[in-house]
Amino acid sequence: MTSEATQIRKKFLKLAKILHPDVFGRTLEEKETATKYFSKMVSPAYQLLNSDRERGEYLATLRMFAQGKKQKAETPTLSSEIAQKLYRIPHEITYKQYVDEVAPKQYESLDSILEHTATLSELNLVYLFTQTSLSFSSGSAAAPTTNQPANAEPTPAAQPAQSPALRNLNMAELFISKKQWTEALKELMGAEKLDPNNAKVYALKGLVQMNQNAAAIAKSSFQKALKLDPKEPIALKYINQVTVATKPPEKPPEKKGGLFGWGKK
Prior knowledge:
Blueprint: H1 3-18, H2 28-49, H3 52-71, H4 81-88, H5 92-102, H6 113-130, H7 166-177, H8 181-194, H9 199-211, H10 215-228, H11 233-246
Helix pairs in contact: 1-2, 2-7, 4-6, 5-6, 7-8, 7-9, 8-9, 9-10, 9-11, 10-11
């Protein structure tokens, strides 16, 4: 086991202890919230980072994402002051300093987890946008190389084991569980940009839009989700509800005749 793998496991066990539902003094609601953070954020991240193959594929996906954004000359939208500061004067050492400053605060309080997670995400985004050569930590797995002849057909790249929008999806689900629809929708819009062919993104968008009383838009999102994946469970569960809501009311039968219905037929 590499030293980095050991550090990843230590961090995971530390967070598991912090977010354990039996931490003394927490209310039932706080315990449920802590469990959701662990299952939606910490556990999936550990599963990805603990696998050399999946970690390498995920980092390759991030490199492709950054390259595409640079080619389009796009600029990131940043809310946190520290991320804006890094973007103005980008440097790998500064990036690591800022991450080391924010990361210990991430799980100090259940109320501030989302805020600090969003800040870390923006720092990572700036790093992707500004570094000409993305050099991740030394323990990260590099893409495998093969001794192919120069004229050989390139081997197709392996598909990422995890969606590049995984963090956004997990954050969106957390916001949905708290009925914070506006925040959830923001995360899903970000997820759509990262993974536009992910059926779950559109299914969750439909769920949020339905709860924002936008039935017609929700129906469109559910339909797009089912077009990508006809078995998408969230879309299948709710599409009938928004279909009924958007159905125009039936017109009452026309009354024929004169006064009190007598007369013409």
